[in-house]
Amino acid sequence: MSYKLIYFDIGGRGEPIRMIFAAAGVEFIDDRIKDEDWPKIKSAMPWEQIPVLEIDNDTLAQTVTICRYLGRKFNLVGHTEFHAAKCDEYVDHFNDFFEYWARYFYEEDEALKVKYKEEFLAVHLPNCLSKFNSLLEKKKHKDFLVCQELTWADVFIATKMDRMQKTTGQEVLDSYDAVKKFKDTVFNFPKIQEYLKHHTVNI
């Protein structure tokens, strides 16, 4: 089975997918298109959006859908159906939270951008990260969210946290020891470390 990921030459929505491939140790074609080439291929993409994953002669679109598929394909969903469902729960919740980051990050009006960022840092970030921190502290396996082994949800959320740190400030995780340790543990996973040695992640 062959895989080709089509996305821009940035981290963005494509990086969680790349990181899941890395965690699984599965090779794929990383087709990083240039901005100027996007209009030429846009109409050929499902929903006229990327990322798109080509799997042999089939295509799959939408970041979370692709990540969920790869998680199941590569056995990164824990050991039970309940574990797989918890992966979905944690990713869905974090994605809801991440919309507040996107609102401020992509806002072009400077006054609104400042307002949204202040709201994100004062309200939404502590509300979300405190819950994840408490969740991790209560678990016997404090390194990962779902079970004692790495799942696609761990990779997805840690990758999003990394992007949030790089765009908002490295200190945003400092008040959440368990979350910070979780993110570092995922990024220190041997296969992910090997990937990061050879790839610079642009925001």
From TrEMBL:
The keyword Transferase is annotated on this UniProt entry: yes
Keywords: Transferase
Catalytic activity: RX + glutathione = an S-substituted glutathione + a halide anion + H(+)
Broadest EC class assigned to this enzyme: transferase
Domain GST C-terminal: 80-203
MF-aspect GO terms: glutathione peroxidase activity; glutathione transferase activity
GO terms under biological process: glutathione metabolic process
EC nos: 2.5.1.18
Boundaries of every GST N-terminal domain copy: 1-78
Record-stated family: Belongs to the GST superfamily. Sigma family.
Listed name of the protein: glutathione transferase
Organism phylogeny: Eukaryota, Metazoa, Ecdysozoa, Arthropoda, Hexapoda
